[in-house]
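for the recovery benchmark. tokens below, seq after
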């Protein structure tokens, strides 16, 4: 582990000490949509910088075979296929999905945020500096944190 590492993490599965933050989002692309992801290491100060970005391709096994309708429908139009624009929704980051995984074995680690509405740093629950009741959960962990009594107290929310 780096000397500048302020927190400690040891994976229960592989014994690794590094964490990776992922962001997955969908964009509209013409009549369909595309899924993208970016990722990078969680730093000592609980910040991250995405170092990699890629389009998530659908599994070829998921491909649906369609019949040939050429005999049934004739296209007698003279127009060319239209170009389409890609629209990325920057104003609704709530639809983005964030994940924290062990860099060694890719096991997902539950985490919370330093500030409400996914603000501030990311604090994985398996890190040595995680304090229950101090952080806001990633939305998909809300029920889990409620059962564990880890949600911030009402006085803290004001």
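predicted aa per position
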């Amino acid at each position: 582990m780096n000397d500048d590492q302020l927190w400690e993490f040891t994976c229960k599965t592989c014994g690794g000490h590094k964490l990776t933050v992922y962001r997955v989002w969908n964009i509209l692309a013409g009549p369909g949509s595309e899924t993208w992801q970016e990722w990078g290491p969680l730093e000592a100060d609980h910040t991250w910088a995405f170092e990699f970005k890629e389009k998530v391709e659908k599994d070829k096994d998921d491909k649906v075979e369609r019949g040939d309708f050429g005999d049934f429908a004739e296209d007698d139009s003279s127009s060319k296929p239209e170009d389409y624009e890609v629209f990325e929704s920057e104003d609704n980051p709530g639809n983005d999905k964030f994940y924290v995984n062990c860099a060694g074995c890719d096991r997902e680690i539950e985490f919370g945020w330093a500030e409400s509405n996914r603000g501030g740093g990311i604090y994985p629950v398996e890190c040595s500096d995680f304090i229950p009741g101090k952080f806001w959960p990633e939305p998909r962990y809300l029920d889990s944190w409620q059962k564990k009594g880890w949600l911030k107290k009402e006085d803290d929310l004001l």
